[in-house]
Design a protein that fits this description.
single chain; alpha+beta; Enolase-like, domain 1; four-stranded antiparallel sheet
Length: 351
């Protein structure tokens, strides 16, 4: 069930400076990029702004480019463009793979990288109509004081469910943001891993993390990775969802690894949809120099399982999602280390 949206004034700036000025003039205004998530939330009255600033007319926020040894991606670059752009396919194949698995073609053509990175955290008790939430006495994230996922605490477990963030975490991405006049004015650069807050309310500004009031995400940038075939780095993105054609992830895993002579030199993994923020799997440095065998795969699974904390925020069973963390680790290793595919399959047959 949806309701008429809260009435708002829609603004159409033509530059970043004009957008920031509008945000400064109208505290609490929301930025509208592709609208694939925001418009749904407005109809459910999860947000009730008096002013919305459309970014559609700001061309400087679009595009992928090589600049000074860095790859930069404008915040308004669509997910569909990321999935097919030659520079992304060459230098950031994990990101291209993740982008290709976002929703369906229509939504990829509308949704933007900036919107996906700033995606509002999701929960089965939050992403409902106003009528449904009111009948349930609302929740800690919006209008209530109890987290229905974990009623005994004061922590919001609403889950970040974007696909592009874990892929970009594997590449040490940074964000350029600009704030309006006042306390948050000027530009700042923040590592993507430091952008998100630990509590699910970060995405609506109730907890530290994410964009500051009125702040606008301009671009994503990272040191230019060496092309994977030349450097030996390989990577992939694995995704679990209820319907493969359109759904948000129930779990996502980005993996990059470097191997030589049957040994692991380096590996990076990041998870999405099982925590209030996308999470880098920590402590993988200790596996450098290890032989690529089934024992190593089991150790990687244990590390990933320790990082992911699926709760009752999604439609899939919590225990199933936790089990699938290890399953996606196996699936990623099978893709990236083909010689382990047969031993893994044989072990599954015996189990």
């Amino acid at each position: 069930m949806t309701y008429a949206m809260h009435p708002f004034t829609l603004h159409h700036p033509r530059s970043v400076e004009e957008a920031l000025s509008m945000a400064a003039d109208h505290p609490g205004a929301l930025y509208l990029a592709g609208g694939t998530d925001l418009m749904v939330n407005l109809r459910k009255r999860l947000h009730e702004p008096h002013h919305v600033v459309s970014l559609a007319g700001i061309d400087e926020l679009r595009g992928v480019a090589l600049e000074g040894g860095q790859l930069t991606i404008g915040a308004l670059t669509t997910i569909g463009e990321l999935a097919n752009h030659p520079l992304v396919l060459e230098h950031l194949p994990v990101l291209a793979g993740a982008a290709a698995l976002v929703a369906g073609p229509t939504l990829r053509g509308m949704g933007t990288l900036g919107g996906n990175l700033c995606l509002d955290t999701r929960c089965r008790y939050y992403n409902q109509s106003h009528f449904w939430r009111q009948a349930n006495d609302f929740c800690l994230k919006k209008d209530g004081d109890v987290c229905h996922v974990a009623p005994g605490g004061s922590f919001c477990w609403a889950t970040y469910s974007g696909d592009t963030a874990p892929a970009l975490l594997a590449y040490d991405a940074e964000l350029d943001l600009a704030g309006p006049e006042g306390e948050n004015s000027g530009e700042r650069t923040v590592a993507l891993n430091d952008f998100y807050g630990p509590d699910g309310r970060w995405s609506i500004g109730e907890e530290p993390g994410g964009r500051r009031p009125g702040e606008l995400l301009l671009r994503v940038r990272m040191p230019l990775p060496e092309s994977d075939p030349e450097s030996g780095w390989e990577g992939c993105y694995e995704k679990l969802r209820v319907r493969d054609s359109i759904d948000f992830p129930q779990l996502g895993l980005a993996t990059r690894l470097l191997r030589r002579d049957g040994k692991l030199e380096a590996i990076r993994m990041a998870l999405t949809a099982v925590n209030p923020r996308p999470m880098v799997v920590a402590g993988l440095e200790e596996f450098s120099g290890r032989v690529l065998d089934l024992a190593l795969v089991d150790d990687l699974k244990r590390k990933a399982n320790k990082t992911g904390k699926p709760m009752r925020t999604a439609v899939a069973d919590t225990a199933y999602r936790r089990t699938m963390i290890g399953a996606l680790v196996e699936k990623a290793i099978e893709r990236l280390v083909p010689e382990l595919a047969e031993p893994l399959a044989e072990r599954r047959r015996l189990d």
